[in-house]
Please model this.
Amino acid sequence: MNDTHPTSTSPIWRLSEWIGIALYGLLVFQYFTLWKDPGPQDGARIATLTTLVIFEFVLAHSAIFMAAFPRKIALFVFVPFYGLFAWAMNASVPGNTIALLYAGVVLIRMRFIFSDPSESAKMRALGMSLISMALFMVCIIAFSANAERLPNWGLTDAYLTAINFRDITGTSGDFVDNPHAAMAMGATYFTLMALAEIWVYGLLRKRKTQGLSANA
Model:
């Protein structure tokens, strides 16, 4: 099939693609701000975004199956299955950011579950899911292994002690013990994800709509 446009011409699809880019931008801003200049009341946000870095593995993993399997399996098997992971991680940090993020991600991906995209569109989505998993694995290995070499900036030991960060998280691990590494990874990973989606979906390329199906 000769796919003459980079992604779907449907306004809903195009809007969802740019909403995803905007969410990445917001996350990058949050990660960088909390890494560079955290405030005395930001302990819960730091704990949540640290957990979010780990939870991204679940999101990237689930994206592969949601894009590759038939819609009924995706909706009735994978959505609730990965939802259990979201619920467990959401319970480990203050607030409901993790649960809301999972709901938002599933809602955006439901364009595949409740629509009939072309094979080329589905292959692009599957390819993006595989890219997200590859980027995640490279980033988590690189940033966890080099945590001591990264600048702490505002997330110094004195600051973390002052806000009782250990009590807020109630757990331990490479990123919990080194939240500056989690913030650095989050800022880097989501920047790369935004650039990858712009490239894969051709969001900056001119679209040709004549003679094309809205779901091609």
Remarks:
- Residues 209-216 have pLDDT under 50 and may be disordered.
